[in-house]
Amino acid sequence: MARSILHIDLDAFFVAVEQARRPELRGLPVIVGGDPDGRGVVATASYEARRFGVYSGLALRTARRLAPDAIFLRGDFAEYVRVSKQFHAILANYTPLIESGGLDEAYLDLTGCESIGGTAPEAAASMRARIRAELGLAASAGIATSRLVAKVASDKAKPDGVLQVAEGTEAAFLAPLPLRALPMLGQSTEKRLAPLGISTLGQLAALADSALEGLFGNHGRVLGQRARGIDPTPIGHDVRAKSISREGTFAADVADPEHLRAVLRGFSESVGADLRRDGRRARTVSLKLRYDDFSTVSRSLTLPQPLSSNEAIFEAGTALLEKLRERDKRPARLIGIGVSNLVADAVQLSLEPAPERKQESLSAAFDRVRRKYGTRSLQTGRTAFDAATQDERSVFEKGTGLSSQMK
Ligand SMILES: [Mg+2]
């Protein structure tokens, strides 16, 4: 039986949240990102601003030049996270098989869920109506037999539309689209196909497997299948990073436990911020230590509940550090902390214990202030961050004698 996959994506999410609570902004070119004279980039532009050529990732200064009359907002990440949770909570009424694709998008496997929300188009209509009524937001949806085609369809349906690609018509639907319409098809693939005169998915799909393998090795066959709209990846199979970690090598080996803990706290905050930005929680925290003789040990701790607060990550890391140091107190050459076993944030909301909820709202406030005023603006008492220096990397290099490596 063909699967029934739905991809739903909120339109111009950050801007739409601002317009929902400030109706005077509706219909205007609005750009969320920050100070237009600063060094930041556009996070989201309203469709009115997009008409001036403004898009996500564009330098704010350029956006200002293209759309001088646009309204520039700094953004309110905590509010976006709050609305995102409501969005995911609505989706959870339609199927247990949901995979969050970020704050503003998700994949739902609706196969066999007719008794819950009706056919896929009926379910799509119902959830879009609820999202509009309860959140004041427009969502676009794509329905297809695979997550890949559903995603492309929701992109094509924007803004505020629904597009269903019927079983058997996937290849024909994709054929006229440019290569970059295919999720995860990068510039390097595009560049290798250009000399062959291949610029559409139909042209790519027409290549024989042998030719694809010659060009792209083992990956070639899968690429050809994807261009034909074939993607067996199940919903719930997370294609994003499976872990988030930070580690750093000290310029001079460190034995002082306070110093190690301070560095660990800094890394925990940084890992936690990434985790929350992704809308995810971690079940496992790992600590890594390397000694002066380059021997390396790592230990992991599986948490009773998936967590995302800075404090929870730091506490688990500290417990692991103490355990390791009970056995071996030699100075450390490198220390690192990571989280893995990641789950979508929305799944656990009702299960988390109250103290963690409090820590998470603290962490969210932390993220908001740092986002607004920079990484250095807020520090807990014991971080290794040095207020005088500019960014995390240089802090770890200059401030604590660490060279930090982001993974
Ligand atoms: Mg979106």
What is the fold's blueprint, element by element?
Layout: E1 5-10, H1 13-21, E2 30-32, E3 44-45, H2 47-50, H3 60-66, E4 71-73, H4 77-91, E5 98-102, E6 105-109, H5 114-117, H6 120-135, E7 139-144, H7 147-157, E8 162-164, H8 170-174, H9 187-193, H10 201-205, H11 209-216, H12 219-227, E9 243-254, H13 257-277, E10 280-291, E11 296-307, H14 310-327, E12 332-344, H15 354-373, H16 392-399, E13 402-406
Parallel strand pairs: 2-4, 7-8
Antiparallel strand pairs: 1-6, 1-7, 2-3, 5-6, 9-12, 9-13, 10-11, 10-12
Magnesium ion binds next to strand 1.
CATH architecture of the largest domain: 2-Layer Sandwich
Strand content: 15-25%
Rg, nearest Å: 24 Å
Described by its quaternary structure, the protein is single chain
Low-confidence stretches: 347-352, 377-407
Could you explain the architecture of this structure?
This protein folds into three domains: 1-164, Alpha-Beta Plaits (2-Layer Sandwich); 171-227, Orthogonal Bundle (DNA polymerase, domain 1); 243-406, 2-Layer Sandwich (Dna Ligase, domain 1), CATH 3.30.1490. The chain contains 16 helices and 13 strands. The protein is α+β, with helices and mostly antiparallel strands. Helix 7 (147-157) links the parallel strand 7 (139-144) and strand 8 (162-164). Helix 11 (209-216) crosses helix 12. The strands form three sheets. The chain has a five-stranded mixed beta sheet with strand order 5-6-1-7-8. The chain has a five-stranded antiparallel beta sheet with strand order 11-10-12-9-13. Bound molecules: magnesium ion.
